[in-house]
Design goal:
heterodimer; A: about 280 residues; mainly alpha; MetI-like fold; two-stranded antiparallel ribbon; 12 helices; 2 strands; about 0% strand; globular; B: about 250 residues; alpha/beta; Rossmann fold; six-stranded mixed sheet; four-stranded antiparallel sheet; 10 helices; about 25% strand
Chain lengths: ~280, ~250
């Protein structure tokens, strides 16, 4: 009797978490969908003209900016994170790993406003002085994000590499492969589903990050012309305008949220599918 | 007969624990040496010194010398990758790499610079034939090696080692957990291989050692108790402990 009660209670609590997600999704879609239909899906997604007080709701420059910032963060962050993961999982002696792994994981605990602040104070002037442009830019946002996603990608990749059976490594070495050949041809291959999952989760984190990006990206409402252009991402747009938005404007911000929601869903679902497919093989 | 491997006063400790103490041994060329002994007697460690796979264990201390064709393989600065090409190894659990049958076999030769497709195909076929697996897999070389049965996987691993064209083959309980028919096939394979390869076989199965080997080394607690021809050891063992082990009184 008591057993059953506890079981039921736990079940209820577990479902309430899913319930929260469901409620959020329903609310965002309910608030945002009408305006998308009002201006037309094509206009909403493909127009770059965003002047919400004058009735123009085109988010395409923000979609492009969000994607570019994320891709930039990946180009910089993924090689770094993989290098960290391979070093920590394979090359570094135990003593070094014990210090380095928690340090990298600590990066995840630093509030994003601190990243943004450091970006504004250190990174932005550097870019302005050495590369030109206003400094507040797509590049600055990508670099900051690259550092922020480092712990996510590194720690999941380390777990994936460590999960490769030791016998694979031994087998490969016994065939006369060098350590690096073994890593490249056997270990990374066997760990690839975990590593791809890590990268996709990193992407989801990058595209969803708001505060640090607002502080360093410049927030200009334009299609980015170069990595040095100031850009406004989807998340920045919501955060910047929520305070004073009303009516259709407010609804349009919810619609921006829908776009983000879809992106993140696509990332997470594809991470799941990839993990499952490779596990089956 | 010529000596392929000579072990001189070899001691091995791991975390200050003696695993092997002052072992002296010789492996004759083109023959099978069996290493037997109860669990924890240092058999596997000895085997892993022959291809320097013992390097993977941290905090070890090795003393003594091991010569392969007169060259000390324990000397610092030795190219271990080249050594492992000459001294192949088959493990107690078959470990095919998660790839196709063909790729498993081509892995070693590719590492050592053979790129020509035709040459690789020849090597793959020859090694599979030597390991007596060719007839069973010739029509499905591109299927995943993980789909093979345990016995087939183990013969695949033997074939994979052969594909590198080594001089010495080390086998660490290659028939562990296999059914009698697979075991028989592997023993037959070993018999046909010893004409051109030097083989070292570690086995817990005393009768397998008696059936397949030419010489036997009996290890106990890291010490070499007796070494001699298989016929001698199994008929007139000199040491009482060998006699006890063979007749199953301990171990």
């Amino acid at each position: 009797m008591k057993e059953k009660l506890i079981e039921k209670t736990l079940m209820l609590l577990a479902f309430s978490a899913i319930g929260a997600l469901l409620l959020m999704a329903v609310f965002i879609f309910k608030e945002g969908m009408p305006i998308i239909f009002k201006v037309g899906i094509k206009n909403f997604l493909f127009s770059t003209h965003w002047a919400p007080t004058k009735g123009h709701f085109g988010v395409s420059s923000m979609i492009v900016s969000s994607l570019f910032v994320t891709i930039g963060a990946m180009i910089i962050g993924v090689p770094l994170a993989l290098a960290c993961a391979i070093t920590l999982a394979e090359f570094a002696p135990q003593r070094v790993t014990v210090i380095l792994k928690p340090t990298i994981e600590l990066l995840a605990g630093i509030p994003s406003v601190v990243y943004g602040f450091l970006g504004v104070v250190l990174l932005v002037p550097l870019i302005r002085d050495y590369l030109g442009g206003p400094g507040l830019s797509l590049l600055a946002a990508s670099i900051i994000l690259a550092i922020m996603i480092l712990p996510t990608i590194t720690s999941i990749s380390i777990d994936a590499i460590k999960a490769v059976p030791y016998s694979y490594k031994e087998g490969s070495l016994a065939l006369g492969a060098t350590h690096w050949q073994t890593i490249r041809m056997v270990i990374l291959k066997a760990a690839r589903s975990g590593i791809i999952t890590a990268i996709i989760l990193g992407m989801a984190r990058a595209i969803g990050e708001t505060m640090a990006v607002i502080m360093v990206a410049g927030n200009a409402l334009r299609l980015p012309q170069s990595p040095l252009s100031p850009v406004r991402t989807l998340t920045s747009n919501i955060a910047l305008e929520m305070g004073y938005a009303a009516g259709d404007h407010r609804a349009a911000l919810f619609a921006t949220g829908i776009v983000l929601f879809v992106f993140i869903m696509v990332f997470n679902v594809s991470a799941n599918i990839i993990t499952k497919r490779w596990r089956r093989e | 007969m010529a000596a392929k491997i000579v072990v001189k006063d070899l001691s091995f400790s791991y975390n200050h624990q003696r695993v092997l103490s002052a072992v002296n041994l010789m492996v004759e060329a083109d023959s099978i040496l069996g290493i037997m002994g109860p669990a924890k007697s240092g058999k596997t460690t000895l085997l892993r010194i022959f291809n320097r796979l013992c390097d993977l264990i941290p905090h070890v201390r090795i003393e003594g010398e091991v010569f392969l064709d007169g060259e000390n393989i324990l000397r610092p600065g030795l190219n271990v990758d080249r050594l492992r090409k000459r001294v192949g190894m088959v493990f107690d659990k078959p470990v095919p790499l998660p790839r196709s049958i063909f790729e498993n076999l081509a892995y070693g030769p590719r590492l050592h610079g053979i790129k020509d497709k035709k040459r690789l195909e020849e090597l793959v076929e020859r090694s599979l034939r030597l390991a007596q697996l060719w007839d069973e897999v010739k029509d499905r070389l591109n299927e995943s090696a993980m789909k093979l049965s345990g016995g087939q996987q183990q013969r695949l691993c033997i074939a994979r080692t052969l594909a590198m064209e080594p001089e010495v083959i080390l086998l660490d309980e290659p028939t562990y957990g296999l059914d009698p028919i697979s075991t028989l096939k592997i023993e037959q394979t070993l018999q046909s291989l010893k004409e051109s390869y030097t083989i070292v076989l570690v086995s817990n199965n005393t009768w397998q050692v008696a059936r397949t080997t030419d010489n036997v080394a009996f290890l106990l607690m890291g010490e070499l108790i007796e070494y001699g021809s298989t016929h001698e050891i199994f008929t007139v063992p000199k040491d009482k402990r060998t006699d006890d082990y063979i007749s199953g009184r301990f171990g």
